[in-house]
Amino acid sequence: MDDSALTPQEVADILKIAKNTVYELIKREELNSYRVGKKVRVDMSDVLAYKNRTKSRKETVGSKLPLSQENQRKNGFVLCGQDVILDILSRYLELHPHGIQTFRSYVGSYGGLYALYQGSVQLATAHLWDGDTGEYNIPFVRRMLPGIPAAVIHLACRQQGFYVVKGNLKSVKGWEDLKREDLTIVNREKGSGTRILLDEHLRILGIDSAKIKGYGNECTTHLAVASAVARGTADLGLGNEKSAGQVKDIDFIPMQTEKYELVMKKEDMNKPPFQAVLEILRSPEFRMEIEGIGGYDLKDMGKIRQ
């Protein structure tokens, strides 16, 4: 069993919950931890033990979101996606005069759009690049929500690129390097926007993914990918720039600017909670808080692209 020491942020990424929730679990003695100096650390074995203990529960870890899609439809306003922007948006939405209690579902872009089509979430986010058109999100929304008019609202632009060990010892420069036999990669899970970005570039370049070392090794967050590269278990990973800055001994090679966007059904747009979302995204207060985090281009935040 892997007993590697994890930071609270890495635990949060693995469980797809907020870092503050990790501290709360530790405080309630639901998750074992220890200190190294002033730093809190959690062993991977304790994270796995926690997950196994909670598998039979009816609610997701660290959230009020019911597991069954039927209960989601009946009981909540669900915002789907993984970026910290959405955690902040949820807080603003609950405090807005026309807002609503918001449940978070931490799944990738593809799964989020599918859930929106199924009616089990009210808002989904996406950063899905279509290699044939060079367009983000709109081609996927049209294909994955057939017959459902949908609005695509811009949130932010982010930089996607390669994570390599500090100093870029293997001289990685671009997508063509994925053909090299001396590189081992670590991948994101199927359905994530980052995985689809990689797969689209492989398709365009005619690279057989089966010949790429490490293609089947998957992580569920950008931070986990960057950490794997920093630990030397892979030479290369793909993720956003912000996460690269949170992991020691990682260099970031920018490859592509992506659009991170919110998707809702047009039939819902005039309902109070959805109007509240648009007001929040266009408010100076919300923009200032996101700018304070850094790592985002917010020039067109709140703009309806479709």
TrEMBL record:
GO terms for molecular function: DNA binding. Residues 6-53 form the Helix-turn-helix domain. InterPro entries: HTH_17, PBP_domain, SinI_DNA-bd. It comes from the Bacteria. Residues 93-282 form the PBP domain. Pfam families: HTH_17, PBP_like. This is DNA binding domain protein, excisionase family. It comes from Syntrophobotulus glycolicus (strain DSM 8271 / FlGlyR).
